Amino acid sequence: MAQRFRIVQTPLASVLMFLGASVFGALGQFLYKAGAAAATGGPTSYLLNPQLLSGVGCYTAVMVLFVAAFKRGGSLSVLYPVYASTFIFAAIISYFAFGTPIKAVNVLGMGLLVAGMFCMGR
Description:
Layout: H1 12-38, H2 43-47, H3 50-72, H4 76-83, H5 86-98, H6 104-121
């Protein structure tokens, strides 16, 4: 029996939720790094660390946005590449928070990520 596949249109709201999830994901990475730097090594320095707890909150927001976006509809092959923009947002946050340089090769990689997201969405 032949299986039929249906083309699923991806709502703009779902794409925007994944874009928001990518911002929360990048912010969560920043908070984890900041929290790790502030931790002293004991269990309470991790469990009661405001930055680490905020990072967990960010990743909770990511999962909530994923579920809400999938509930509205859309293809995983369209939505998940949008989440790859997390790497772009993380580089930008790292530049402002830690002074990490963004080199020409990094910008090229970001451009390739955006091109890949565009191609995957087609």
